[in-house]
Amino acid sequence: MSAASRAGQIAAHLNYPSGLLQDQVAIITGSAQGIGAEVAKAFAREGAKVVISDVDAAKANAIAKEINNSGGSALAVPGDLLNDSYITTLVKAAAEFGNGKIHIIINNAGFTWDAVIHKTSDKQWDTILALHCSVPFKITRAAAPYFRVKDGEPRNIINISSTSGLHGNAGQANYAMAKAGVTGFTKTIAKEWGPAFGVRANTVAFGHIQTRLTAAKEAGAAAVLPDGTKVALGIPSAQAAAKAGGAADKAPTYPDIPLGRPGTAEEAAKAVLAVASPLFSYVSGQTISVTGGRNI
């Protein structure tokens, strides 16, 4: 048998659609920029109908427009995930967009609000735990009627974590606690909804990915809370240079990353796409580290 014939048999056996996520409906939180936006675009290129969830309405609408203008299918549903009524609205809109079905949830939204333990305020603690733990739980709970079904179609949930949740990180007790919690939640979904409904649930834990969270703090990126509080994002240049093994005025070397560089948002999105795709159809309850080899 020729290699081409064998490849054809394998493809037929796996029953790939024309796109890896063809006609699947995906809610992607925090998808107006950074990794989330790249996930939305990658999913749309593979045939998914993507729901753009983000607190920044202008950016959410822009990403949806970009996808739709490129031949994909996207719906922007902007809003504040810390508002329970918005979560209800988001799930309802996604189900209507999908003609009564939702197949994928990517719990990606979040940011960091750093401080050493003894200087972390209750507000810093509560906000980060709510956004990274309570919100994924509430979205998943609200979407349960669309996942606890037996229609023969794939369903999966991917919770985004971080190496901070796997190994801890000085100055990030709140973020590390939240991201560690995500792993336990993922495993519970896999155990509860896998046996009867075939739902897959996995965690993707990122290392150093180039986003506004790892950019120079001096660039001025910020997250704005509902009460108007501005949370500065990024890493001070001197601190980032020290971690990367160089001075602030020299090119970093990243000695702790075997691949020798940070990852891009596009690379991060491809990892999420792989986990969501039928290529990972027998993988559930796992934490996949996307780190360039860091922490091995």
Automatic annotation (TrEMBL):
Its EC number is 1.1.1.100. One of its GO terms (molecular function) is 3-oxoacyl-[acyl-carrier-protein] reductase (NADPH) activity. InterPro entries: NAD(P)-bd_dom_sf (IPR036291), Sc_DH/Rdtase_CS (IPR020904), SDR (IPR050259), SDR_fam (IPR002347). GO terms for biological process: monocarboxylic acid metabolic process. The keyword Membrane does not apply. Keywords: NADP. Gene3D superfamilies: NAD(P)-binding Rossmann-like Domain. SUPFAM superfamilies: NAD(P)-binding Rossmann-fold domains. It catalyses: a (3R)-hydroxyacyl-[ACP] + NADP(+) = a 3-oxoacyl-[ACP] + NADPH + H(+). Coiled coil: none annotated. Pfam families: adh_short, adh_short_C2. It comes from the Eukaryota. Belongs to the short-chain dehydrogenases/reductases (SDR) family. This is 3-oxoacyl-[acyl-carrier-protein] reductase. It comes from Microthyrium microscopicum. The lineage of its organism: Eukaryota, Fungi, Dikarya, Ascomycota, Pezizomycotina.
